[in-house]
Amino acid sequence: MYQVSIRGTDRVMYVNPKDRRGGRMIRFSGLSQPRVTNFWRHSVNALKPSLVVDAGVNYGEVLLSSEYPVDTVIAAIEANEMLLPYLGRSIEEHPNASQIQIVHALVSDEDREKASFFVNKLHSGLSSAHPEYSKSSRQVELPTTTIDSIFKDRDVNRDTLLFKMDIEGYEWHALRGMKRLLTQCGTVVGCIEFNFAYLHSKNIDTAEFLFYLKQSFVVCTVNRRGQLIEFTDPVNEVPKYFALDKGCNDLMLLSRRDLFDLLK
């Protein structure tokens, strides 16, 4: 295990230096996605969330960059079993360790006993539920879970939910599997990966996906200067903006318009 000090914090994370994703964490001092991580840190400070979900937590770059209120319930969801020893060690040294539950499952829109997951042996960040038949890929079977199922026994009506999803094109499935949280939590702020090239390669209709997001969220992103910007017409505006800002691969989702003013 290689210890990485997370830039801008007094916390550490542990990675596999032989994994290309782990190597990236080392090179960037645990801050390879500054737009997402800085938005996350700002959201934690502004919202003081009572529920936190990181789906596709990987080594924990984003989740472990913040410290949370002592009563926050935190779910760290990861399908790649190879990452669990590193993630577990990192969580052990985090101030909120006792509040973080590691969920080893594939996040989806239904609970199933078994589903295929394709582990990229060279780059853990490219592992996906979408079929990938290559020499660097290894197919495994594991359970699926919905995010709603993880919190099925909790009354969430007064909760403030902060979530992140980076699950290689499976974000739409995961969102459908957290319908109860999205509709019942008092406040919801999220961040999802939205990589046009990857989504198109998996035959995902990005226009339909954006239309779906518009029905439930104020859809935003973070620009080069770290500022939150809103898309009033995501179906048309997001593709144009992402084509100009090549470093932009994520969308920020807000349940109410006043949250934009709080987080911008």
Mean pLDDT equals 95
CATH topology: Rossmann fold
- Topology pattern, helix = H, strand = E: EEHHEEHEEEEHEHHEHHEEHEH
SS-based class: alpha/beta
Cα-based radius of gyration, to the nearest Å: 17 Å
- β-strand percent reads 25-35%
Strand order of the largest sheet: 5-4-3-9-10-13-11-12
The CATH class assignment is Alpha Beta
Quaternary status: single chain
Number of strand segments:
13
Q: N-to-C terminal Cα separation, in Å?
A: 37 Å
Number of domains: 1
Please identify, by name, the CATH architecture. Answer: 3-Layer(aba) Sandwich
Shape type: globular
Sheet with most strands: 8 strands, mixed
Question: How would you describe the overall organization of this protein?
Answer:
With 264 residues, this protein is α/β, with parallel strands linked by helices. The chain has one domain (32-105, 147-263): Rossmann fold, CATH 3.40.50.150. The protein is built from ten helices and 13 strands. The strands form three sheets. Strands 5-4-3-9-10-13-11-12 form an eight-stranded mixed sheet. It has a three-stranded mixed sheet with strand order 6-8-7. A two-stranded antiparallel ribbon has the order 1-2. A hairpin with a 6-residue loop joins strand 1 (2-5) and strand 2 (12-15). The longest helix is centred in the first third of the chain and has 14 residues, at 34-47.
